[in-house]
Design goal:
Number of domains: 1
Number of helices: 10
Strand order of the largest sheet: 3-2-1-4-7-6-8
Number of strands: 11
Distance between the termini: 39 Å
Low-confidence stretches: none
Strand content: 15-25%
CATH class: Alpha Beta
CATH superfamily: Spore Coat Polysaccharide Biosynthesis Protein SpsA, Chain A
Radius of gyration: 18 Å
Shape: globular
Largest sheet: 7 strands, mixed
Structural class: alpha/beta
CATH topology: Spore Coat Polysaccharide Biosynthesis Protein SpsA, Chain A
Length: about 280
């Protein structure tokens, strides 16, 4: 069983659906996907939990590929408010949902090995190759951040993919230390900085496990649709996500996930139809 962690609110449904389609289309082993979510509508009106209907549909979709697959919703609102409510980094560069992974050691029944993935990732290969990496001597495994390893520190990581050794993390207090930083020090890249500066032992992996630049590498396992520096027709950045199909075609010239995205489009229409019928 491959244990996966996603985080977000009701607006991450498209990302979760596309990502889970790509994973289950290429991964033979069964997956158990936890989705940490919360209601912090006190900050912004649409910062509400991913809905039960959305999670039930995601669970139905993954079971089409393997009946042992499952998606589990974990509401961590109370835990978040206790740990991070009104903290220095609540209004960081991303949404407060990026902080939820830092609660993993406080949530009951979380397995000893956990693959955290940002919602803007797609699997181009079988993720069991990544999940089966031996991290018994490390707190986690990660890939270098494409710009951060140049401008911040040579071993600076991209926290979009973190293969957690929860057993070791509970011993070293990695996430406890990261939470302390979040609560006491304003940081540019909040959650990512907090993990990096709290690390005792990490394993750096090849870029194929968190490819942040190219869509053309045949060995890619995880492709990350993060913000990219584009040189033509002039230097600029683009931040298209995988479900923004026209954008990734026109601007990023990415077509490698077209079969997954065709499946996504069909399934999204089916979900919207069900919701509409339920409201009538």
């Amino acid at each position: 069983m491959i244990n996966i962690l996603l985080c977000g609110n009701q607006k991450v449904f498209d990302g979760a659906l596309t990502e889970l389609i790509s994973i289950t289309n290429r991964t033979k082993d069964a997956i158990c996907c936890y989705i940490f979510t919360m209601d912090v509508s006190r900050i912004k009106a649409d910062y509400t939990c991913i809905t039960d209907e959305q999670v039930a549909f995601l669970n139905e979709v993954v079971k089409l590929k393997n009946k042992e697959n499952q998606v589990i919703k974990v509401d961590v609102t109370e835990l978040y408010e206790k740990e991070f409510g009104n903290c220095k980094n609540e209004s960081a560069y991303c949404t407060p949902y990026t902080l939820l992974r830092l609660l993993a050691d406080m949530v009951p029944n979380i397995p000893d090995k956990l693959l955290y993935l940002d919602i803007d990732m797609m699997a181009y290969g079988d993720i069991s190759e990544l999940y089966n990496t031996d991290i018994s001597e490390y707190e986690y495994a990660a890939v270098k951040e494409k710009y951060g390893c140049i401008f911040i520190w040579p071993d600076y990581i991209n926290a979009g993919m973190l293969l957690f050794n929860m057993k070791k993390i509970r011993k070293t207090g990695l996430l406890q230390k990261a939470r302390h930083l979040i609560k006491t020090k304003k940081m540019l890249f909040a959650d990512q900085d907090a993990v990096y500066y709290s690390t005792t032992q990490k394993l750096l992996l090849p870029r194929k496990f968190n490819e942040q630049s190219s869509f053309k590498r045949e060995d890619t396992i995880i492709c990350h649709f993060c913000k990219r520096l584009m040189w033509l027709p002039y230097p600029h950045t683009e931040n298209y996500k995988q479900w923004q199909i026209d954008g990734i075609h026109k601007e990023l010239k990415c077509y490698i996930f077209d079969k997954d995205l065709a499946e996504y489009t069909e399934l999204k229409s089916e979900f919207e139809k069900r919701i509409k019928e339920a409201m009538q």
